[in-house]
Amino acid sequence: xxxxxxxxxxxxxxxxxxxxxxxxxxxxxxxxxxxxxxxxxxxxxxxxxxxxxxxxxxxxxxxxxxxxxxxxxxxxxxxxxxxxxxxxxxxxxxxxxxxxxxxxxxxxxxxxxxxxxxxxxxxxxxxxxxxxxxxxxxxxxxxxxxxxxxxxxxxxxxxxxxxxxxxxxxxxxxxxxxxxxxxxxxxxxxxxxxxxxxxxxxxxxxxxxxxxxxxxxxxxxxxxxxxxxxxxxxxxxxxxxxxxxxxxxxxxxxxxxxxxxxxxxxxxxxxxxxxxxxxxxxxxxxxxxxxxxxxxxxxxxxxxxxxxxxxxxxxxxxxxxxxxxxxxxxxxxxxxxxxxxxxxxxxxxxxxxxxxxxxxxxxxxxxxxxxxxxxxxxxxxxxxxxxxxxxxxxxxxxxxxxxxxxxxxxxxxxxxxxxxxxxxxxxxxxxxxxxxxx
Length: 438
Hints:
Layout: H1 2-20, E1 41-44, H2 47-53, E2 59-70, E3 82-86, E4 94-95, H3 99-112, E5 118-124, H4 130-140, E6 150-158, H5 171-181, E7 186-192, H6 198-207, H7 212-227, H8 234-250, H9 255-270, H10 310-320, E8 327-331, H11 340-349, E9 355-359, H12 372-378, E10 383-385, H13 391-399, H14 412-437
Parallel strand pairs: 1-2, 2-4, 2-5, 5-6, 6-7, 7-8, 8-9, 9-10
Antiparallel strand pairs: 2-3
Helix pairs in contact: 3-4, 7-9, 8-9, 11-12
């Protein structure tokens, strides 16, 4: 009897281990004819974007959670901080959408509409908010099996050789707390990195001139400059203009003044916004906006050769050894090379149900095109891509067969012109014959 009781305990524990695993996202959208890399990535930053996202036919809703306050007119309090859904470039940590409200809306939608396969991806802007956020998710989704993928992401290892200032979470503690409190969720682990504009942001931080909200606003303007230079908000343009004038007086030789000054010059050169003019300066005729606008700020400082080293991947393999259904976040610019996919393939191959989530950081300039080789190497059924597809490419593919020169048709006008040409030729021949007889 003792042997059977021991075996019963073993089998029950193994059964519980299988139940704890969350919904496998690698085949969740297959019934819609979508591979994992084709699933639309919908960014949610407030209540309106969540309501719109919940109406999609098949997508992955991505939320970034921070420690902040709810809007006052919605019942919030300036002294009450809680997990809110926001974005990385938000100047003030306040929102009309708390994480609890978002989870309730998602749960209600999933209960009434089971035909639309919608997944959820949650990441933390500050690691300190993770315990509170996981507790909220646990109260709303305590079930060991959920009807949709709930992916919860955190950076737990460093892949920047100590150059990144991004705070990390303890990997083992994150995995254990998520398994215990939200057993139906799928953990997604990532690295802190040093790529793109990180060198610029680190130097601005080291200057210790700007406050955090000022830096966040500059990041937002730089992102607008690259993606949509014509439609940078007027209030943001005015902000960098006044900040640049202040830095010229107080910190004229700082790197921060160089960045803000170059940003102002780029916006001025594009010619889509008006700046304050000195009443005593000479007047010149205004120039039309540039057809080819300036988009990149300090391109010589942009880091584009970063990649994940073998020791970084080996450390992650050791952390997840023996686990199933674990995802990994990678930065798009660091896996765009020829060997980016081969390094990470062995990582997801060691984890049953493993997958990759490709993301970007503020002001990254990489697009989806650089990921084609990576997706082919790893497999389109194992990669989630947060970068949007270029609508121009889709339109070009749809109309490529129609781009041709049509053949001329025989219209009445063309037949009349042919008759006219024939008559003219006969008349000319008769005239020549008469002149020759004379």
